[in-house]
Amino acid sequence: MPRPATARPAGRARARLAAAVVALAAAVGTWLVWWAMVTTWPGQRVEELVFVTADLFQDVVNRPVEPVLLLGSPPWLVTGFLAVCGVGLARRRWGATAMAATVVLGSNLTTQVVKDGVLYRTGLVGEWNRDINTLPSGHVTVVAAAWAALLLVVPRRRRPATALAGCATTCAMGLATIADRWHRPSDVVAAVLVVVLWVGLASAVAPAGWADRPHDDPLARADVPTRLVTVALGVVAVPAAGLSALAAAATEGHLWAVLPWDAGLTAYAGGLLAAVAIATAAFAVLLPLSQAAARPR
């Protein structure tokens, strides 16, 4: 039996509302991360321990992570932007291409403006970039924005694989910036949240049928892979986030009288887990959101 004519408009309205909620949550989350980790003594102490411990391993990790860090440079920003737009234009998805370009440019511009002109850092602990705000991370934004934008222009059936690749690459960049002492964990988390914010905004204002067309890709063909990938990413994100929070609490002495290892290693492990958690959580949200927002008329 065919669905009533009001079913699809109602579905689009729910998708837009969900996108707006995601965008708002990402904006609030970015501020909360900055407030908790940059403006407070406990937050700065935890991240200083991450930085000090990373220094112990930097000689070991520097060479293998250098190629990853190059992906966050300006040439790769341009390359990613052109690649995303090229896919959209090749598929003749003009609206999706414009939205994807907006996500890439908006995310990277927001990161630079917020980092240099909106948020601030008062050095309470440590000496590295003592009074220089490094939140959000520009390198992580470059990678996360390119893959998130690609979700908006690839065919529906390709989005689950794209989300997995985007999650893996974003996770690798986040881990690399922490391990090689380019950024603190909060910088990584905020960068991914900025990208989520822009995808949410773009999806909230998108017109109906902006990306998918009924004759191109049957909806059911992508439904099962989308659910599987979303659940798989969530299964990784939830425990990683919980363990990261527990590590931060343990570092500050709120848990466990005797740690299984020293506080620096605990903080370092928690910082790396934070990068994993935010990358997996972001694409666990962006995949079903993009599928819902891009549904054909």
Distance between the termini: 18 Å
Q: How many beta-strand segments? A: 0
Encode the helix/strand succession as letters.
Answer: HHHHHHHHH
Helicity, as a percent range: over 70%
Structural class label: mainly alpha
Taking all Cα atoms into account, the compactness measure Rg is 20 Å
The helix count comes to: 9
The residue-averaged pLDDT reads 90
Which outline best applies? elongated
**pLDDT under 50 segments (min length 5)?**
1-7
Q: How much strand content do the residues show?
A: under 5%
> What does the largest sheet look like?
none
SSE arrangement:
Elements: H1 7-38, H2 41-70, H3 74-90, H4 94-118, H5 138-153, H6 159-179, H7 185-205, H8 219-251, H9 263-293
Characteristic terms for this protein:
297 residues; mainly alpha; 9 helices; 0% strand; elongated; disordered N terminus
Notes on the structure:
This protein is mainly α. The chain contains nine helices and no strands. It has helices at 7-38, 41-70, 74-90, 94-118, 138-153, 159-179, 185-205, 219-251, 263-293. It is elongated, with a radius of gyration of 20 Å. The two termini are 18 Å apart. The model is unreliable at 1-7 (pLDDT under 50).
How do you describe this structure in short?
With 297 residues, the protein is mainly α. 76% of the residues lie in helices and 0% in strands.
